[in-house]
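Notebook p. 47: complex prediction with S-adenosyl-L-homocysteine.
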Amino acid sequence: MHFNILTIFPELFPGTLGAGVVGRARDKGIWSMDVINIRDFAVNNYGSVDDEQFGGGAGMVMRADAIGPAIDSIKNPGKIIYFSPRGVQLNQKLVREFVADKNAIYTLLCGRYEGIDERVLDEYDITEVSIGDYILSGGEIAAQVFVDSCVRVMDNVLHGGADSTENESFEIGGLEWPLYTRPSVWRGHKVPEVLLSGHHGNIERWRIKNEHY
Ligand code: SAH
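Predicted complex, structure tokens below:
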């Protein structure tokens, strides 16, 4: 899977995507990334990519004549996603759909300021994706959430293999059972007996019963 990331803050990447299982998956070639600095397509020598809103009001808007050329510079943009609070809200089912084609290419457009000129959305076939009902100051965190959630369900990314992702909370509806590791007693708090029993059936039943919905 390949991601083209369009941002005015290229230094924010790989960010969290360079660490842990997702970072290792990149080292293994399971996914790759090109970061494109939208400022390289600025409309003047001052590096401007934004301007005042037509109609007035506080806050700047990213210019279509900067973003358009930035998108056009990508040889194979694949599916274009714009992170936006009004987009379809990302969830585990949607993540599975995005990952269905493991050779897919995604171009991820990170907004800043008040957002982007609407005509960019008219000009290209763009899917708007939100990561939740709150407002971030930029799309870069959303892009990292998107890539992280996609990569970790890909084959050969998690140590436990398919089993670890299939057991994943949101896949089976619940919000994960309580987790314990060594030591078996900590400050007087004991690990539930059943988990130390080695009885897989009982453990399974206990986990299902204790899932947080
Ligand atoms: N004017 C917008 C906020 C823009 S925030 C409004 O009031 O709704 C600036 C940028 O951050 C957006 O262009 C978008 O790319 C990103 N962003 C903010 N919140 C987001 C969210 N919940 N999900 C995905 N991207 C978000």
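Notes: The two ends are 32 Å apart (CA to CA). Strands lie at 2-7, 32-37, 50-52, 60-62, 79-89, 105-109, 126-130, 185-186, 189-190.
Next step: compare against the earlier run before touching the bench.
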